[in-house]
Amino acid sequence: MENVETYIAFDLEFNTVDGVSHIIQVSAVKMDRHEEVGQFDSFVYSDVPLQSFINGLTGITADKIAKAPKLESVLADFKAFVGDTPLIGYNALKSDLPILAENGLDLEEKYVLDVFDEAFDRRASDLNGIVNLKLTSVADFFGIKGHGHNSLEDARMTAQIYEKFLELDENAKLLEQQEEVSNNPFAALGLGSPFRLKLYKSCKGCKE
User: Are 146 and 157 in contact (CB under 8 A)?
Assistant: First the structure.
């Protein structure tokens, strides 16, 4: 898995009516060297009636939407927040990125990693055969707390899961190095093989 030191994890909430998805929240967290260094969070005005199950799912109310800035303004601010920073998300290729593109903001070229795809690939190994790959389920597996379907918390959980995967990869790399040393006692001397040790002894004291 690619190790991206500086990136933005993002997420959207939307209200789908008659087959059309209307963005109602845009959120993101910016990470730099494993630390959260910034965030973006905005509700989005919509004159489309908020479906009751969306209210129950997200906690977003019609009042919050009525008082929010319009989509064009929110997306302009979000674009400025992203700048040239690489993006990651959770299954964003399926929904979030296409919806943004439909509304005039194409960020697919900045999208470098999908954490859902990583979770899928690690399901039988690092995730111990987890029953489902919902964002909140994978977060719970790692002891990460967050309220699902709030796009700011979803973005933060996405970043934290990615950081857990990075940590697992680093631990696996260290374990592999330790096994190499234990299986090859000469590796601890930086010699790598008995032949190199013989050369080392024969040249000990030689001038370079």
Answer: yes
The string of pLDDT tens digits covering residues 101-119 is: 999 999 999 999 999 999 9
**Cα-based angle 183, 185, 191 (whole degrees, multiple of 5):** 115
**Confidence at residue 176, expressed as pLDDT on a 0 to 100 scale:** 82
The answer to whether 75 touches 105, Cβ cutoff 8 Å, is yes
Could you tell me the sign of the dihedral formed by the alpha carbons of 81, 82, 83, 85, in that order?
A: positive
Between vectors from CA 169 to CA 163 and to CA 172, what angle results, nearest 5°? Answer: 145
Question: Which residues pair with residue 23 across a beta bridge?
Answer: 14
| 17 burial type by CB count under 10 A (0-12 exposed, 13-18 middle, 19+ buried) | middle
CB atoms inside a 10 Å sphere around CB 15: 22
Residue 159 amino acid letter: A
Contact 13, 95 (CB under 8 A): no
Burial class (CB in 10 A: 0-12, 13-18, 19+), 111: middle
Distance between CA atoms of residues 169 and 1, nearest Å = 8
Query: What does the pLDDT average to over 33-51?
Result: 96
- Residue 111's DSSP bridge partners are 87
Strands (E), 5-159: 6-17, 20-32, 35-43, 87-89, 111-114
Residue 208 has pLDDT above 60, yes or no: no
